[in-house]
Structures are given as structure tokens and as C-alpha cells.
Design a protein that fits this description.
The complex is a heterotrimer of chains A (about 240), B (about 110) and C (about 375).
Chain A lengths: L1 E10 L7 E11 L4 E5 L6 H8 L7 E7 L13 E3 L5 H11 E4 L11 H6 L9 H14 L15 H12 L6 E5 L7 H16 L3 E5 L3 H4 L6 E6 L2 E3 L2
Parallel strand pairs in A: 3-8, 3-9, 6-7, 7-8
Antiparallel strand pairs in A: 1-2, 1-4, 4-5, 9-10
Chain B lengths: L7 H44 L11 H4 L6 H4 L24 E2 L2 E2 L1
Chain C lengths: L1 H20 L1 H35 L6 E7 L2 E3 L1 E2 L1 H7 L4 E14 L4 E7 L9 E4 L1 H7 L6 E5 L5 E9 L5 H4 L2 E4 L1 H8 L5 E2 L1 E6 L5 H11 L3 E5 H7 L9 H22 L4 H12 L4 H32 L4 H8 L16 H27 L3 H4 L3
Parallel strand pairs in C: 5-9, 6-8
Antiparallel strand pairs in C: 1-2, 1-11, 1-12, 3-10, 4-5, 4-11, 6-9, 7-8
Classes of the chains: A alpha/beta (about 240), B mainly alpha (about 110), C alpha+beta (about 375).
């Protein structure tokens, strides 16, 4: 699980265009549950997600991640790591093991094959290429796009690309999936398909954290908890 | 997806390895050729000594290109002081050192 | 260790996939690059070998040659000078050299006629170099007709042909007897073409040369190391053709580097953003750019120098032959001994591979350091 304690993020500190994106958020994300961050654009959802995913550091506050074993760091019984005070090199390992990201655009790299796209998150870490290939293929099979493995990424349809993106997010077998407006460019049918995939992930014990203002997402029965956000702060429902 | 394809990085690294091997062969071959050609070179230097030659027979177009080390100042400018070089060899060989000396330093 | 190798290999895999996306452009780039390296390396190999050979072959050239000058031109030197020079302290022996040029209209070639000091040649006979034999199809026993200075014919029989091995120095030589030489050229008695000296102490050469100039102001002494150094400046980078070749190569390089350094396209920036978003570090992205540079430049470099080596040492440098031959009819056949200098190869490597790789990495630096957070906000 992920604990956020009084998180604040301020951009351009001290300058005339100082901007408080996140203004004191305290939140606990439960393991194995699907949580949705609901709110209009500009509410600070993306910033919050990025901090939770260890992609950026908060200006103040603490973030604790539990449940993931990281070599080289002393951890207590429930394996809690305080991410905010970790040096950079450990942070990347935490990020890699803990989170898989799904962005608004499918963001597959054009010109290279689908399977290579899926393997990309694991490339810098020196695992054996053949192992990576096997894993990527099994993920593609899982999402029924294994026939496209050697096709170029731009040949996939919208739905197939979305599934490839999810496969990619699962490449490093992360503890949690973080998705930022995943259905923004999908039609209704594909959005519902996306939520079905989320349901399957939940069955597999994965944690998911989705930022979305799409009702198909936050009103889905799969979702365990919805948290509203506005102007950098949580809003009680 | 049965067959295992060749990895691109494998092909590339193989190519580099083979090339580096060829480059080292270049050096090894040169080493042995220098040894085996030593006789020819000695014979040539003996002829040079016997006949008191001063130049290699590389450019037989004109007298000053044939013996560049013996060339005098006029040869290259025989037509006119600022005439353009007649022969291609002139763009390959500079005038001999003694003509290029200015104040005792070679230009 | 294994992990780092795998890591690099994975990155290379991605880099190669990325380069293959624009096959046409990258392949043409590599071809041009290879051609540039090929030309530069060919020039390098050829000139280095020739210079080395020249040094080795000419090391026993006459220690000093004394020419007489009139109005700046090389003129015949009178016998009397020999005694005067012999009188200088440190001079060992002085010999008069008889040599000159003869133009043969039947083949349009220039020959060098020489009276050898030690070899005895009978009147009416000559010993010729292999190049002459080839161009006139003349062999032992054949007769070559010469035209004397006064127009009268002089027929000389070929006694011997100098060995093929010595073509580089003797290809155009005609060794002739002293009497025939004097008759053929109408050489005035008591004169030589120039004088060849040997000295007791080679270190004294410059001093003795100075003394000779002082004693005989109308002479020009040429000492042995000046003879050798003539060939050091053969194919000098300042020479006409060389400047052309080098500036073309340099210009092409500048164009490459400029193209690379003018920054990344929007697509490239976006892709880097995606990679950062997927968890790639700045160092990983820089690695991609590094390998991009290395794949192109190292491959081209290696292929270029291997081809250049084959070109110069196995096929007699056909590309340069034209320039070297110039307008000459007689051109020696010789196999260049491959003197290769590792230092030069490394220099060429540093001048080609390193700048290109750096030019590929630097513009990507900025984009590579983008905060992964911004990748989420496309």
C-alpha cells in the first residue's frame, strides 16, 4: 500500500509565478484495490499520481510504500519504505518494481515492433533478452494481441494499442498500475473493455490507481474507492 | 513464434568483432611483408649507392619532377615567374628543402 | 558483469531498431562516411609507405652533391672545382657525376642517362631499366636508336636489363659508357653534370657545405638529409591535390556534424519522453545516443580502413595512379611495402569516430534530462 502524508507540490518556488499544484494531501491507497482519483483538469491529479509513482518528489510531506522488497534497503516487518528520503538510485529501483504506468496517449514508439515496445521498460535492467521475450509474448497472449507481435506499432487499431500499452505497463511485474486518464481517447466500447481488463488485474491481486473524470471509469463496479480532488486538495464526497 | 530470431545486437557485435580481426590481420600481414620485402629494399639501396642516385623514379614527366631533390629554382618557372604548374606531379611534391629555406628556417 | 553486458546489448537492440526505421537515410549516411574514411586512409597508407620506403632506399644516396649555378639554373660544373673541393678539410672523396635527360620521341618518354662510376660498360652498349624495356618492348640484344645533340644517329645495344625489383629507382635509367655519353650529348670536355662527395665525418656535412659555398659562390651543395627530406614532403597536406581531398573530406564531416548538432526533431524528443516515462534513466537515454553514433561511425570507419588497405596494398592504388602518373609515359611497377603506422590509424579514428559520436550525443543531452514527470503530461 501507499501512504501519503501531507503532500505538497509547489512549482517555481519563490518566483512570481509560484503555483501550488498539490496543497496538502493525506491519503492511503490500499493494496489489491482499485482506487480512482476523480476531478477536473488542473486539480492536481496528474501531479499527485506522478509523485506517488516516484516520478517526481514532493516539495514537502512524506510518502511511504509498503509491500515491495528492494535489495540494499533496510526494511521493517511490513516492508515500509519512505520514498521521499531515498537517494536517486534506489528511487529508480522502487519505481521499476512497484509501478507500471499507463498514460493518456498510448505512446507506443512508432517504427519498432509491438513486442519490442512491450519489452522496452525492462531493457535497461540487464535481464536476459530471451527471458524478456518470453514474458512479453505471454503478456501479448493475455491481451489477445500476440498475432501482432512482430508488426510495427503504428499498425495497431486504437483498442489494440491500448492493450499493448497495458501489456507494457505489466512488463516489469509491478506491484501497482498507475493510469492517468486512460480512456481519454477511447470510445465507449473500448473504455468498457479497459475496465474489464482492470477487473482481471484486480483478480490477480494487483493494485490500481486511476486518475479519470470519465464516468465509465469511476462509476464502474470494479472500483473500490473514489477520491475527489479539486485545486490541489482532496474534497470529501 | 517458434523460431528464435537473431538478435540485432548480436549481428552488430559479430560484425565489429570480425572487422577488428581483419584490422589486426592488416598489421600482422604488414609485419610479415616488411620482413620479406627487406631484401628488395636492400637491393634497391645498393643500386642507389652504386649508381649514386638521388631520387626515386616516381615522376618521369619532366626533369625537375624526375629528380625533385636536385631541382633548381628555374625549372618550375621556366616559362614565366608566375606560370601555373604544368604537371600534376607538381601538386604532389613540394620544392626541395634548400629552395624553401627562408632565413635558415624551412618554409 | 553479465548484467551490464545484457543491458548494453538491450540498448543496442533498441538503437538498431531505431536506426532501421530510417533505413535509406542511415545507409546513405554510412556509405558517404565510409567513402570519406576510405579516401583519407588510402592517402594515409600510401604516403606513409612511400615515405618510409624512400627513407630506407635513399639512405645511401651521395652524402653531398655539388651543383654549379648560373643565373639560378643548374649548369655543368668544371673539373677544376674538384681539386678545390678536395682541398677542404674533412672531404673524403670527390667524384664527377655524368647524367642527364633524354627525350625519346618514339614513345614520348623521358629517360635518365647515367655513366656509372664502377660498372664497366663497353662503347656501343647500354644497360636499361625495366620501365624502358616495357615501354619500348626492347629486350637484351635489341638495339635502341638514339639521336645525338647534332642530329646524327647513335645505335646502342641492350646488354642487360636492370632487375624488376629495383624499378622504383631504376625504371627509366640508361647506363651508358662515358665516351658514348659525351658524344651523345655533345658534352664539353672537362665538365661534369655535378659532383658527388663523401666526407669523413657525416656530422660535418653542413659545415663543409658552408665552406664550399664560401669557396665557390656559384655552387649549390645539396646534402643527403635534404635529399631524403624531399620525400617527407611528398603528398604534403599543403600540396594542391591533397588540399582538395582533405578539404572535401573536412567539409563533408562538418555537414554531418551540423546536421546532427542542429538538434532533435519533435518526434525524437517525444520518444525520449516516452522512454523516460517508462522508467529509463537519463544515462540510459544517453547510451542510446552513444550507440547510435558508434554504430554508424565505427562501422564506417572499420570498413573504410579495411577497403583502403586493400586498395593501396593489394591493388596498387588504382584511384591515385592517375594523379601519380600525371603526364608521364614511364611509370615504375612496384609493390608498395605495407608500412602501417598504428598512430595514424588511431588519429584517423579520433578525428572521425569521436566527433561524430559526440555530435550525436550532445544535442540529445537536454532532451535526455527531461524529468519523467513531464512525460506524463503529454
Amino acid at each position: 500500500m501507499i501512504d501519503l502524508i501531507d503532500i505538497r507540490k509547489v512549482f517555481n518556488v519563490g518566483r512570481p509565478n509560484e503555483f501550488r499544484a498539490v496543497n496538502g494531501v493525506t491519503l492511503s491507497i490500499e493494496q489489491g484495490k482499485i482506487s480512482v482519483l476523480k476531478g477536473p483538469s488542473g486539480s492536481g491529479k496528474t501531479t499527485l499520481l506522478s509523485m506517488m509513482g516516484c516520478m517526481s518528489r514532493p516539495t514537502s510531506g512524506r510518502i511511504k510504500v509498503c509491500g515491495v522488497k528492494i535489495s540494499g534497503i533496510a526494511q521493517d516487518g511490513d516492508r515500509a519504505i519512505e520514498v521521499t528520503s531515498l537517494p536517486e538510485r534506489f528511487l529508480t529501483e522502487v519505481r521499476r518494481k512497484t509501478f507500471g504506468f499507463i498514460f493518456q496517449q498510448s505512446n507506443l514508439i512508432r517504427g519498432i515492433t509491438v513486442i519490442e515496445n512491450v519489452m522496452l521498460p525492462a531493457y535497461p535492467y540487464g535481464a536476459k533478452h530471451s527471458d524478456l521475450r518470453v514474458r512479453a509474448m505471454s503478456l501479448l497472449k493475455l491481451f489477445n494481441i500476440s498475432d501482432h507481435a512482430l508488426h510495427r506499432a503504428e499498425w495497431l487499431s486504437g483498442g489494440e494499442a491500448q492493450r499493448a500499452t497495458i501489456a507494457r505497463a505489466l512488463m516489469n511485474d509491478p506491484f501497482a498500475i498507475i493510469a492517468d486518464e486512460p480512456t481519454a481517447h477511447l470510445d465507449t466500447k473500448l473504455s468498457r473493455e479497459f475496465m474489464e481488463i482492470v477487473a482481471r488485474l484486480k483478480e490477480d491481486g494487483k493494485t490500481a490507481l486511476i486518475a479519470s473524470h470519465d464516468p465509465i471509469v469511476y462509476e464502474s463496479p470494479v472500483v473500490d474507492r473514489v477520491v475527489s480532488m479539486r485545486d490541489g486538495m482532496l474534497v470529501p464526497d | 513464434m517458434g523460431i528464435k530470431p537473431f538478435r540485432k545486437s548480436g549481428i552488430f557485435l559479430c560484425f565489429i568483432a570480425v572487422s577488428l580481426l581483419l584490422v589486426s590481420v592488416m598489421f600482422v600481414y604488414a609485419f610479415f611483408r616488411v620482413r620479406s620485402d627487406a631484401g628488395t629494399i636492400i637491393r634497391q639501396s645498393e643500386i642507389v649507392k652504386e649508381l649514386q642516385l638521388t631520387d626515386l623514379c616516381l615522376f618521369t614527366e619532366a626533369r625537375y619532377t624526375r629528380n625533385p631533390s636536385q631541382a633548381d629554382l628555374h625549372a618550375a618557372f621556366q616559362d614565366h615567374p608566375v606560370s601555373i604548374e604544368h604537371f600534376p606531379a607538381g601538386s604532389l611534391v613540394m620544392p626541395p628543402e634548400c629552395l624553401r629555406r627562408i632565413n635558415g628556417k624551412v618554409n | 558483469m553479465g548484467k551490464s553486458i545484457e543491458r548494453q546489448r538491450n540498448i543496442i537492440d533498441f538503437t538498431l531498431s531505431s536506426l532501421l526505421r530510417r533505413k535509406g537515410k542511415n545507409i546513405s549516411l554510412m556509405i558517404v562516411y565510409t567513402v570519406i574514411v576510405f579516401v583519407l586512409a588510402s592517402v594515409m597508407f600510401f604516403t606513409h609507405s612511400i615515405k618510409k620506403e624512400a627513407h630506407l632506399i635513399l639512405k645511401d644516396a651521395p652524402e653531398m652533391v655539388v651543383q654549379k649555378m648560373i643565373a639560378g639554373r643548374h649548369e655543368l660544373i668544371p673539373e677544376g672545382y674538384m681539386e678545390k673541393i678536395r682541398g677542404i678539410r674533412g672531404v673524403g672523396s670527390v667524384q664527377g657525376r655524368l647524367w642527364g635527360y633524354y627525350f625519346d620521341p618514339t614513345v614520348g618518354a623521358n629517360y635518365t642517362l647515367l655513366v656509372p662510376q664502377d660498372r664497366k660498360i663497353e662503347s656501343g652498349e647500354i644497360i636499361i631499366g625495366n620501365g624502358i624495356s616495357r615501354s619500348r618492348l626492347a629486350y637484351e640484344g635489341d638495339i635502341i636508336g638514339f639521336r645525338s645533340y647534332d642530329g646524327s644517329p647513335m645505335n646502342l645495344a641492350i646488354k642487360e636489363i636492370l632487375s624488376y625489383d629495383s624499378e622504383l629507382v631504376s625504371s627509366d635509367l640508361v647506363l651508358i659508357s662515358r665516351d658514348d655519353f659525351m658524344t651523345l650529348f655533345g658534352m664539353p670536355k672537362g665538365h661534369f653534370t655535378d659532383l658527388a662527395l663523401s666526407v669523413r665525418n657525416p656530422r660535418e656535412l653542413p659545415t663543409i657545405a658552408q665552406k664550399i659555398s664560401d669557396l665557390l659562390p656559384d655552387t649549390r651543395p645539396i646534402i643527403r638529409n635534404e635529399i631524403e627530406r624531399t620525400y617527407d614532403s611528398v603528398f604534403d597536406w599543403r600540396g594542391g591535390v591533397m588540399v582538395l581531398i582533405l578539404s572535401t573530406a573536412l567539409l563533408s564531416f562538418v555537414i554531418f556534424a551540423w546536421e546532427k548538432a542542429s538538434g532533435l526533431s519533435a518526434d525524437e524528443k517525444r520518444e525520449i519522453g516516452i522512454l523516460k516515462g517508462l522508467g529509463w534513466e537519463t544515462s540510459d537515454v544517453i547510451m542510446i545516443k552513444f550507440w547510435e553514433g558508434v554504430v554508424v561511425s565505427l562501422s564506417s570507419f572499420l570498413v573504410g580502413i579495411i577497403l583502403a588497405y586493400i586498395h593501396v596494398f593489394f591493388t596498387h592504388a588504382p584511384l591515385f595512379e592517375h594523379t601519380l602518373k600525371g603526364w608521364a609515359i614511364l611509370y615504375p611497377e612496384f609493390r608498395l611495402t605495407p608500412f602501417v603506422d598504428a598512430y595514424q590509424i588511431f588519429t584517423l579514428f579520433f578525428l572521425t569516430v569521436v566527433p561524430y559520436t559526440v555530435a550525436t550525443i550532445i544535442p540529445a543531452w537536454r532532451a535526455a534530462t527531461v524529468d519523467p514527470d513531464s512525460a506524463m503530461r503529454t
